[in-house]
Design a protein that fits this description.
With 301 residues, the chain is mainly α. It has 13 helices and no strands. It holds the Pfam family BPD_transp_1.
């Protein structure tokens, strides 16, 4: 197993990984410190003025220094909405992946260790779900919820609904990966030794097998955070994501899309750039983790 010192050395030697890490760290810090650093609170109606709507960035004619990246149709500073929206997108991405891991790792562990008809049943369910589009499942689920409970309740629970729907839709990726790792681990001597001393199957799975299957899970989780953020952005663009009062990056892009051809390009452009940087940095780090933690690739390094 790679030591922490070796892991750090490999990371610092890879300029792409270092660059992606710096960008991701900056975006996370920006989102976490938004209440302190943001010029205004875009969720506070008392700080908004409709007369400030569609104001260009400060360096363009008509712009003001208090709105460095301009304003949106509601008079909110684009910089402030990006800072708060990045936090919401990250929260949804991390929350959805936590749900995916909880369901997928648990079912994959059980399927791989128990085997037999239970393994076949769980994997067939996973195959069926993988054959369906995540976006399609999310659209149907969110549309039904919105129609059944009304837009007001949907707005209040949108973030929890997005986390739950995206999480439930993507658990098979973790389940199949963990199952494959467990099938290899359960035949090893330490598992036989644990059975011999009388440990229960649950204890063996939790204390001995699970820790040895977490390396591929870590790689998948990094990439799946990016996938969840992209899915949420697509749903928000379709009007089924976060409400306008609590916008994510996807909702911000959608809110300004209709104003692009009228000249207010900054409303969509800057949130789109931040979203691209966020997704790109996560994917690059996920690729680096995959290559670094793969023993076969490490031998050739």
């Amino acid at each position: 197993m790679m030591s922490a010192a070796e892991f750090r050395r490999r990371f610092l030697r890879d300029p792409t990984a270092v660059g992606a890490g710096i960008v991701l760290l900056a975006l996370v810090a920006m989102a976490a410190l938004a209440p302190v650093l943001a010029p205004q609170n875009p969720y506070d109606p008392m700080q908004l003025d409709i007369m400030d709507s569609e104001m260009p960035p400060s360096w363009l004619p008509g712009g003001e220094d208090r709105f460095p990246l301009g304003t949106d149709p509601q008079g909110r500073g684009v910089l402030s909405t990006i800072m708060y929206g990045t936090g919401i997108s990250l929260l949804i991405g991390l929350g959805a992946v936590a749900v995916q891991m909880l369901i997928g790792v648990t079912l994959g562990l059980i399927a791989g260790y128990r085997g037999g008809w239970l393994d076949s049943l769980l994997m067939r369910i996973a195959d069926i779900q993988l054959s369906l589009s995540t976006l399609m499942l999310a659209i149907v689920a969110l549309a039904v919820f919105s129609a059944a409970f009304g837009p007001d309740l949907y707005s209040d629970l949108a973030i929890f609904m997005l986390i739950a729907v995206i999480g439930v839709a993507e658990w098979p990726r973790f389940a199949r990966t963990v199952r494959a790792s467990v099938l290899a681990e359960r035949k090893k001597e330490y598992v036989d030794a644990a059975r011999t001393i009388g440990l229960s199957p649950g204890t063996i799975m939790r204390r001995h097998v699970l820790p040895n299957t977490l390396t591929p899970v870590l790689v998948i989780a990094t990439i799946q955070v990016a996938e969840a953020i992209v899915t949420e952005a697509a749903l928000s663009f379709l009007g089924l994501g976060m409400p306008a009062t609590q916008p994510s990056l996807g909702a911000l892009i959608r809110s300004g899309f209709e104003f692009i051809f009228s000249g207010a390009w900054w409303i969509t452009f800057f949130p789109a750039v931040v979203l691209i940087l966020l997704i790109l940095s996560l994917n690059l780090l996920g690729d680096w983790l995959r290559d670094t933690l793969n023993p076969k690739l490490r031998r050739g390094a």
